[in-house]
Design a protein that fits this description.
nine-stranded mixed beta sheet, seven-stranded mixed beta sheet, 36% helix, binds ligand BES, binds zinc ion, 2 domains, Leucine Aminopeptidase, subunit E, domain 1, binds manganese (II) ion, alpha/beta
Length: 494
């Protein structure tokens, strides 16, 4: 699927399907008004009759509008004029794409990106229209032997007349890069654990590095042993699948300190000896969503050619019970030298992250952001609306929160107060890997904070936002929009 951009007038555009917005209270959008003139008031008449009220997401298809080059017109409700929120804009554009897809057209043109959004400019609308269109048309059917769908939309032309050509070109590059990254992350995360293994992720990283001229390094078990990554290795003991620490380096501004992105890559989390209940355990294939987002973000960074150095660190392993698996009570030594009493083998994410976070020190990073489906407690606290945000640096946290707001991919802060640290006290080691039932998301971050003292660091707990459960089960590609926005900000100020 490809999105392009056009400044042509909607009434003269030849297309299989033309999508325009109708607001509430019988108000036609700019594109609908232009079209209505060319159709001698036909659209206004339909709206007057009340066939479409303009409620957000409503659709109405008009076939063969007389004498117009468009074969079909789809009217999409855009709610009250002038007060669309960023998330509503995504919903609007997605409904337009869905309507075109339901009509089985190969290509269509949409003027929904022209609908004004509170506090956002035309470039934002174009960027996000590209993302929302890809989002709506995404399917994961590579593992189905019979393709149940008829024709698939191949291309979408986004009409936006009130924007400078260079701003539009730039917005298209950014939107397309973010959308491609989300598609890549979704494909990786939706792939089941038997196919998406740590070595598979490493091969994907190699291929990406090859395509974009990045440096890739893959640490194997022997390398981890030589370095002393006792925490990461501890998690990997229960499975036959060999662990990997995947490192990707992008150089967009040689000689400057990089941003390090660290992604949790547990390709399947059974809980280990502290095994999880059977219900919905399949969803633990998504426990590598952090690594998928980090890997995919590197692709976006390369496609946007950001003038910035970025290094991606993705510790990857399965967490399974087995004869050699770690047991509750085991004590291991992390790469930092600190010892950890493993009281619950299901708190494995922090164990693999802590060694990757210590390893990050060697890059002398300007900032480190880790992305991890770390705690069920975060799903309880924030649901699917926002990632949990914890940091040892208020400026960095503020930057990330703002990037999330801008990108309509929010994060929300939780405190990292010293008061919580004592929940990790252990009688037998420097710390325990769990801190009890209370404040589970915070104590998980407290654990990580003991390995991140050398640099400004922020942790995004993405357990609630990275995938959907139930009927819509699948990866969301979040928090890629947030991270891409954050990195663009850093590139501007670097
Ligand atoms: N991968 C899970 C966290 C998770 C749970 C993500 C549900 C998405 C949905 C993580 O490894 C885990 O098992 N965390 C434990 C920590 C606990 C043992 C302190 C949890 O949240 O229950
Ligand atoms: Mn776990
Ligand atoms: Zn996990």
């Amino acid at each position: 699927m490809e999105c392009t951009f056009t400044q042509e007038a909607p009434e003269t555009l030849a297309t299989e399907c033309l999508v325009v917005a109708i607001h509430e209270n019988r108000r036609l959008s700019g594109a609908a008004t232009a079209l209505d003139k060319a159709l001698n008031g036909e659209i206004a008449a339909i709206v007057q009759r009340g066939d479409i009220e303009g409620k957000l997401g409503q659709t109405l298809v008009l076939m063969q509008p007389a004498g117009r080059p468009a074969v079909r017109i789809v009217l999409v409700g855009a709610g009250a004029a002038d007060e669309l929120k960023a998330t509503e804009f995504h919903e609007l554009v997605a409904r337009g794409a869905q309507a075109a897809s339901d009509l089985h057209v190969q290509s269509y043109a949409s003027y929904l990106a022209e609908v004004p959004v509170t506090g956002r400019d035309a470039a934002w609308c174009l960027e996000h229209a590209v993302m929302a269109t890809h989002e709506a048309l995404y399917r994961f059917d590579r593992l189905k032997t019979r393709n149940t769908r008829a024709a698939q939309v191949q291309s979408c032309r986004l009409g936006l007349r009130d924007i400078a050509a260079d701003a539009a070109a730039q917005a298209l590059v950014v939107g397309q890069a973010a959308a491609n990254a989300m598609t890549l992350a979704k494909n990786l995360a939706n792939l089941p654990g038997n196919l998406c293994t740590p070595s598979y992720l490493a091969e994907e990283a190699r291929a990406l590095a090859e395509r974009h001229g990045m440096t890739v390094k893959v640490l194997e078990k022997a390398d981890m042993e030589a370095l002393g990554m006792g925490a990461l290795l501890a998690v990997a003991r229960g499975t036959h699948e060999p662990p990997r620490l995947i490192v990707l380096e992008y150089q967009g501004r040689p000689g400057t300190a990089p941003i390090a992105l660290v992604g949790k890559g547990v390709t399947f989390d059974s809980g280990g000896i502290s095994i999880k209940p059977a219900a919905n355990m399949d969803e633990m294939k998504f426990d590598m969503s952090g690594a998928a987002a980090v890997l995919a973000t590197m692709q976006a960074v390369a496609e946007m050619k950001l003038p910035l150095n970025v290094v991606a660190l993705m510790p990857a392993t399965e967490n399974l019970p087995g004869g050699s698996a770690i047991k509750p009570g085991d004590v291991v030594t992390s790469l930092s030298g600190q010892t950890i009493e493993i009281l619950n083998t299901d708190a494995e994410g922090r164990l693999i992250l802590c060694d990757a976070l210590t390893y990050a020190e060697r890059y002398k990073p300007a900032a480190v952001v880790d992305l991890a489906t770390l705690t069920g407690a975060c799903v309880i606290a924030l649901g699917g609306h926002a990632a949990g945000l914890l940091s040892n640096n208020d400026a960095l946290a503020g930057e990330l929160q703002k990037a999330g707001d801008t990108a309509a991919d929010r994060a929300w802060p939780l405190p990292l107060w010293e008061d919580y640290q004592k929940q990790l006290d252990s009688n037998f080691a420097d710390m325990a890997n769990v801190g009890g039932r209370e404040a589970g998301t915070i104590t998980a971050a407290c654990f990580l904070s003991r390995f991140t003292k050398a640099y400004p660091w922020a942790h995004l707990d993405i357990a609630g936002v990275a995938y959907k459960t139930g009927k819509e089960k699948g990866s969301t590609g979040r928090p890629i929009p947030l991270i891409v926005e954050f990195l663009r900000g850093r590139a501007r100020t670097a």
